[in-house]
Amino acid sequence: MEYADFQLEKKIKSELKRNGIQIKQLCQKIDLTNDGLNNGLRTGSLKVIKLIDIANFLDLPMNYFFTTKEGDVIVSQDNKSKVKGNHNSINNQRNIESSAIETLNSKIALLEKELEKKEIEIKGKETELSLKDELITLLKQINGNRD
After folding, report:
1. pTM of the full predicted structure?
2. Where are the domains of the chain?
3. Burial of 134 per CB tally in 10 Å (0-12, 13-18, 19+)
4. Is residue 58 predicted with pLDDT exceeding 60?
5. pLDDT tens across 78-88, in order?
6. What is the spatial distance between Cα 59 and Cα 10, in angstroms, rounded to a whole number?
7. How far apart are CA 43 and CA 85, in angstroms?
8. Which own/partner pairs from 36-42 qualify as long-range (CB within 8 Å, at least 24 positions apart)?
9. Who wins on pLDDT, 89 or 51?
10. CA distances in angstroms from 33 to 30, 38, 108, listed in the order given
């Protein structure tokens, strides 16, 4: 898959204009200087976290910024997303999410095993109680027959 030029500056400025927002307002919101934003956009070194801040500020999905030459969105749900360019990576967050999911799934599996053990233990106690009830009933019958 080949990636198109992201044209971040053009896309961001277009959205700012469409929403009647000045670059200065955006910079204040995402805690960057105007020069820092322009330099990051010009050199392609804008950090992903800042791009997330921009997307949130402009109420845009992150995939708005990433497209292939065919126009396909490259942010996918299969954890195989890639971003072309220096220091541009969205895989890190997905890897963190995948790791957290794996950890939770492991914990769930352990809890399910523990639950299974407890259910077996409960059935054993229920059987034991049932046997004791039968014994009490038999003892009452035996004592009743003696009178």
Report:
1. 0.45
2. 8-88
3. exposed
4. yes
5. 444 444 444 44
6. 17
7. 10
8. 38/9, 41/8, 41/9, 41/12, 42/9
9. 51
10. 9, 9, 45
Cα(83)–Cα(66) distance, rounded to whole angstroms?
Answer: 7
Contact 71/7 with Cβ under 8 angstroms?
no
Length of the chain equals: 147
Q: Which residue has the tokens 């360019």?
A: 85
Largest CA distance in the chain: 104
CATH (one of 3.30.390.10, 1.10.260.40, 3.40.50.11270, 3.30.420.40) for 8-88: 1.10.260.40
Q: How far apart are CA 112 and CA 59, in angstroms?
A: 40
Phi then psi for residue 66, to 5 deg, are -120, 115
Distance CA 84, CA 21 (A): 28
- In terms of Cβ atoms closer than 10 Å to its own Cβ (0-12, 13-18, 19+), residue 118 is exposed
Q: Are 85 and 6 in contact (CB under 8 A)?
A: yes
Closest CA to 52 of 42, 63, 44, 43: 63
**SS3 call for 80:** coil
- Three-state secondary-structure class, residue 93: helix
